[in-house]
Amino acid sequence: MRLLVLALFTFALLVAPAVLWADEPPTKPADKKGDEAQPADEKPDEKPATTETAPDLSPPAVAYRDIRNLPRTMPYAERMAKTKANANAYLDAWAKSGREAKAGERQYIGLIQQTAERWADAAASFATTCADAAVPASLRHNAAVSEARLYQNAKAREAVGEDHVNAALARLRKHAETMKADTEAPMRGGIEASLASVLDATGRKQEATDLRIAMAKRDPLMTARVYRSLIWGLMGDTHTMDGYEAMRKKAEPLMAMLKEQQAKAVTLREEKLAEAVATLKENNPDALDENDKLKNRDRRSHSPLERVVANNQRQVSSAKGMLTRIEGMSKPMGMLGTPVPEWTLEHAFGPTKTMADLKGKVVVMDFWATWCPWCIRSFPAIRDLMEELGDKGLVFVGVTASASSVYTQRYDLDDDLKDKAAEGERPKPAARLVRGGAMPDGETTFGPEEYKAKELEVITQFIANHEMTWPVVMIDKAEPGPKYALGGWPHAVVVDRAGRVRYFKSGALLLDRKEAFEKFKKVLVDLLAEKAP
């Protein structure tokens, strides 16, 4: 018995500090049935981890994990409200306990304060952690990233005030500049990327552009993080016919720099891969084939050295793919002001079959897919724009393509379909219905033609469920990228009354991102004011 007690005491001394000082809070993987942590207001089967001075209070790192870990089956708005309530309840209990946060705990207290929307308190917690020399460097850097991301939120900026935000941005930039070029470069990039987003949000676009360019020039591995903002930002500066040529000239040197730096990033990744392969060959030469590929394709059973090789192989592949994307960014630039390509129709869900059917209208080609949550999150904004501008000549066309997986049921995202569930029924996330010609039960299979019929049936149901009252077309799946410069879903191509491409929007269109929404709306209003040919 004494040995058991001694062992438990030793375990507590060794493990508890490790959890407290971890760079990221520990997580509990869900089982196949969707095991979820219980909400804070329900009685768990076991008491949470305790502290010395507050026996009923979980350590902040554990509490932050539990506060976030609500069931994903819970409707989005309800889950967000519950998360906020749980965060506030924990902070109130923490205040009543009289306990002072230790250096390593303050970062997690800040994250909980952010979740509770106590913006000023969260900003103070992050800033204090970042400035505390007693805190491990990794936690100080995490706190800097958290504070930089905090100011991307308009409510947070409003709560702390413009002067505070400006002072914080200057302080965080200085902190980033002190970080080591070799071991801490990714963390520095994370801080500066977030700062650039804040600068964009506060109208300091040129500063944001300069910072992103400096990041890419300093560290080739940062190129992938900044190229989209730099290039799409340039394309979003103008939607006038006169402005396109000036934009293209401005983009040429920037594109050349990004290509050069990303090529260097590919070389760096390949060098890391070569080192990993050499180490594996030295320790286990039979693990690789004649092309230096891993024989064992099961990632779950990889040895540590095999895992390093596999990770580096993925990074090389990703870096090469990113270089191809950057080179392909000249495609949308060249399309601006030119006639929109006609698609190859596979199926029309409505009367619209060609772009010619919409001649004289301002058309937004909205590329979406059943498997894309951010596409569905854009639907409320589409409805609002159609309601306001539809009678002035605006038309949205939902453009999708055949996929290996299609989804059905409802998405509970933002306010889309929130009221569409039957009485007493909880809206559910979309479920995969068809994948590669096999039903989920693994028993019912069907050939390509049967799959296509089922896919069309599911999309028809999906359109009805989401009240997509605008035209929807399915086009050849090989066309979105080459013809319409699609680099990711969602994606929008705006076409003027003369049938020319006038604007691109990459990413979701969201009502709660007011500045971006109003900017896109202004483009449409301006194009609607132009006379039809």
Q: Report the CATH topology name of the largest domain.
A: Serine Threonine Protein Phosphatase 5, Tetratricopeptide repeat
For the biggest sheet, the summary is: 6 strands, mixed
Number of strands: 8
Globally, the shape reads: globular
Q: How does the helix and strand content classify structurally?
A: alpha/beta
Short description:
With 533 residues, the protein is α/β, with parallel strands linked by helices.
Describe the structure.
The chain is an alpha/beta fold. It folds into 3 domains: 18-218, Alpha Horseshoe (Serine Threonine Protein Phosphatase 5, Tetratricopeptide repeat); 258-332; 339-529, Glutaredoxin. 53% of the residues lie in helices and 8% in strands. It has 19 helices and 8 strands. The chain has a 6-stranded mixed sheet with strand order 1-6-3-2-7-8, covered by helices on one side. A hairpin with a 5-residue loop joins strand 7 (491-495) and strand 8. The protein is globular and about 70 Å long. The termini are far apart. The relative contact order is 0.07.
List keywords for this structure.
533 residues, alpha/beta, Serine Threonine Protein Phosphatase 5, Tetratricopeptide repeat, Glutaredoxin, 3 domains, six-stranded mixed β-sheet, two-stranded antiparallel ribbon, 19 helices, 53% helix, globular, disordered N terminus
